[in-house]
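Could you please consider the sequence and fold following this short note?
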Amino acid sequence: MKQITVSRTVFTLDELEPAAKEKAIQALREDAWETLDSDMIAEDLAGRFIELATGEWVGATSKKQIQDKYGIVIYWSVSYSQSDDAQISGTLDAETSPNLDWPDGVRMIAIRSNNYTGSTVTWVDTDDDERHYDGRALADAQQMVNNLNKQLYREVRKLVEGYTSEDYVMGNYIDLPRRFDENGQYAPAMFWAEA
């Protein structure tokens, strides 16, 4: 059997020409998108909800913690399509979420989430100890929830864009041994070793 040695010229990111470097950075950003940690984003988003609800930043928070303490679950989708959104489901309480823009007289809101219609308010409790299934209080609560969902969506977009940004990728590229061809395409992994 005859042994054949293959050689190839590969480049680090810094060694690439500007156009090739831009393509390489785009490839790294696409990899970051493909490997996003959705649990990490969900925990960051839960922390953002708590900040909106209480005015206090407590950091990333688990789904269980936010459900146990604040009575809600947050759903989100960011795929740059028309189905992108963030929505909540559960029961919001003015006592645990005082910083939200509560409608006058409303102290508790029950919300049902649906992939097609978003978060729908199903009933509200008011200061007069009445539960309302329709009327002005319900409409005002629905507007509050819609606004909250929009804020959460803006927050989750910022998180996703941050974790796939050029700055983030470049900051995390330092530890990766990736090599590229002269066009900015990934070279085969066998050529990634340090020279």
User: Anything to note?
Assistant: The beta strands are 72-77, 85-93, 106-114, 118-126, 131-132. Helices lie at 18-34, 38-54, 63-70, 136-163, 166-173.
